[in-house]
């Protein structure tokens, strides 16, 4: 299993290639030289975590594990905030069946 290391720097050097776009909310790129995957969350404005984002993260991490990347950088498409945390609207618009899949 891939150990998830959150790095505070961007890997420089080497060409990056797009492995895949899991969904609109996450993208995965792998640095060819280092084998380090970069997983970017993109749910404007503050990457609040709803069921869809959590499912997309889970899918992207599984893809990274299957491709045997050496490490992972989890980052945000927003330059101002990493993540606001759980989307409070998930508590008010709760569909129990939808929450069970997470």
Enumerate the spans where pLDDT stays under 50 for 5 or more consecutive residues: 1-23
Q: What spatial order of strands do you see in the largest sheet?
A: 1-2-3-4
Instruction: Indicate the mean pLDDT.
Output: 77
Structural class: alpha+beta
Tally of individual helices: 3
Report how far apart the termini are. 19 Å
The largest pleated sheet is described as:
4 strands, mixed
Per the CATH scheme, the topology name is 2-enoyl-CoA Hydratase, Chain A, domain 1
The helix/strand series, from N terminus to C terminus, equals: EEEHEHH
Given this structure, which CATH class is correct? Alpha Beta
Q: Please count the beta strands (DSSP E, at least 2 residues each).
A: 4
Q: Quote the beta fraction.
A: 15-25%
Helix proportion: 10-25%
Protein name: Enoyl-CoA delta isomerase 1, mitochondrial-like
InterPro entries: ClpP/crotonase-like_dom_sf, Enoyl-CoA_hydra/iso
Organism: Drosophila rhopaloa
Pfam families: ECH_1
Question: What brief labels describe this structure?
Answer:
single chain; 102 residues; alpha+beta; 2-enoyl-CoA Hydratase, Chain A, domain 1; four-stranded mixed β-sheet; 4 strands; 25% helix; flat; disordered N terminus; Enoyl-CoA_hydra/iso; Enoyl-CoA delta isomerase 1, mitochondrial-like
Overview of this protein structure:
This protein has 102 residues and is α+β, with helices and mostly antiparallel strands. It has a single domain (16-100), classed as Alpha-Beta Complex (2-enoyl-CoA Hydratase, Chain A, domain 1). The chain is 25% helix and 23% strand. It has a four-stranded mixed beta sheet with strand order 1-2-3-4, with helices on one face. The radius of gyration is 14 Å and the shape is flat. This is Enoyl-CoA delta isomerase 1, mitochondrial-like.
């Amino acid at each position: 299993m891939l150990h998830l290391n959150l790095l505070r720097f961007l890997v420089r050097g080497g060409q990056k290639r797009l492995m895949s776009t899991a969904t609109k909310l996450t993208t995965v790129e792998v640095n060819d030289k280092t084998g380090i995957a970069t997983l970017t969350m993109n749910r404007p404005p503050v990457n609040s975590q709803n069921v869809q984002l959590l499912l997309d993260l889970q899918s992207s991490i599984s893809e990274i594990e299957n491709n045997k990347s050496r490490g992972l950088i989890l980052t945000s498409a927003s330059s101002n905030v990493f993540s606001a945390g759980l989307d409070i609207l998930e508590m008010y618009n709760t569909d129990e069946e939808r929450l069970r899949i997470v």
